[in-house]
Structure prediction request, 668 residues.
Amino acid sequence: MHLSLRWKLILMICLPLVAVSAGLLAWDYARQRDQAVLVMTDLVADRARQSADQIDARLSGVVQLADSTAANFGLRLAQEPTARLQIPSAFRLNPLISFYAIVVTPADPRAPAVGAAVKRTAQGPRTVALSEIRTALEPELNKAWPTEGSAKAMWIGPLRSAALGSGTQYIYVVPMSVSEGERVRGVVAVAVRAEDIQGLLSGGVRPSRANAAARERAAAEWSLSSPFGPDGFVVLDTQMQVVSHPEEQFVGTNLLQEAGRMPGGEKVVEALRRCLNSAPGAVDVPGLSDVLPVLTKDRAHWLAHAPIAGTGWTFITAIPQSAVLDPIVSEVRHRAAMMLSGILLMAAAVAVFSLRISRPIEKLARAVDRVSRGDLRSKVEDIRGGDEIARLGHGFNEMVETLDHQIRALAKETTARESIESELRIARKIQTDLLPTTFPPFPDRREFDLHAVNVAAQRVAGDFFDFFFVGEELVLVIADVSGKGVPAALLMAVTRTVVRNFASIGLSPREIVLRVNEILLADSADNMFVTMVLAKYNPRTGKLVYVNAGHPHPLVITDGQGGLKVAELQPPDAPLLGALGEREMGLVGQSEIALQPGQTLLLYTDGVTEARVPHGELFGDARLRNGIVKVGVGDARSLCTGIVSMVDEYQGSLPADDITVLAIRRCQ
Prediction:
């Protein structure tokens, strides 16, 4: 996506502001949240402690009534064994007590137990038969006091028995002895309904309201000043059994076992273990409503807990964290909206100012775009002011005008260069056509094997080779014109033509060289000359008559039993052609040798031995001879191409001079 300069300016200014504002909001939210969580953790823990103390205070009245009754009747029985058992009047004054019983076993084991029991009903107090009481209490007492010495005051339950009253009961039992050390002679039992424990706190959720609609109303009406959460509270005993619950059917269940069977219930089990029998506090439990659907939906809850000291039980209530964090989130959102409004106003101001700044740049950009499409006459119009952008526009106009002139001049120069390149390609083609190109050149002649290679350093070469029959003799020519390029190529063409003309009339190699020197001396420039080896070879006898006019000495390669041997053809040498007059050239002599079957004559120009590496070392005669031995003499073609490849590899891809190699091997 391509953005204009205007939008880039707006984004460059506004995005950092947005990032900084977002960072500050996040930091502020995290700080306030952490502070709120810290304060509210203490608050809900304190609420739980107050609620537990309120329940404990109400239950303490029940406990004290039972303890004092047990102590008083113990004394009366010690003084008056036949004392009449009566229910104290305090039972009627404490509406929390739903059942009260005193049971005494006489000193004579054969005598029946005596006692009195009253339960609270809707019609008022009602006396309960002693047999019913014993049937309901004795199994629980046997479990609570398995041995004679284990009798102590404690809460037992839950019990559900018509003899004890309606609902689920928790009973506080106190053992009673006539004298110290004597066996238990009786018990005092006081019962409290689990449902009434829920009513001990103001606004307690009653079971009749424990449905979805009631929970929604309770959550809507709930505030942090309530003594428990919007879903009510539970009371657990030391075994994690429910002593009191907003819904009575859960009373008596073991939350540890129930939570363990729920999907994800392990976090509830861990939280409950932390709550049980510990100092007042609050446990953070994420996703609690997912595990316990009866709770108000929230991302996390606090389980506020506190021990009920007089009973050994634990008070627990769930507080949704959103009740604390939502006001903070709302305040942060309000701040974010205000910051966003400010940023939008700033963006509008930046847009107005950026339009003024970017309009000249946009004009310049459009002009640059037209130039990129080839319109070199495009200019930035209506330039105003003297700031940097105006100077840039004036500079662009001058640059385009200069560039237009330079490109027009370059186009003319390129046209001229292409014309020259075309002419050089044609010249190279003509030069190549002048040289023999068909190999093997004489396929019907089995007496010898002949091959040659010419590589130009530039478009055209000053080296050339030639071979042709004059009668029964094969004329061999290799020459190197001084210099390179077009002048050398023109002199090369003249020299080749002159050599062919004089050789065709039957002149000897010495005579041909002398005639060529005369013509070159008369017609060529003072600084132009030619080196040449010219020979006549008789394929039938192997006789070779040759002249060397300033050229590198040819090599004779012999493949014998001891391996390859390479030897130079010795002088006489002649002067350079086109450099000296007739008197000096009179010293020219010619020599002859006889090539033996299997011997190879190698002719080459100085482009082979004078090839250079980048640091300036020459290829040299010794490296050439070693290379010939390495390449071997299989045939003339492989020898020539092998030498050229070695030289190319040695000097790299930019040859310094023309390279020409000619090889002839006598086969029989």
User: Anything to note?
Assistant: The longest strand covers residues 300-308. The two ends are 80 Å apart (CA to CA). The domain at 435-666 is CATH 3.60.40.10 (Phosphatase 2c; domain 1). Residues 5-79 form the longest helix (75 residues).
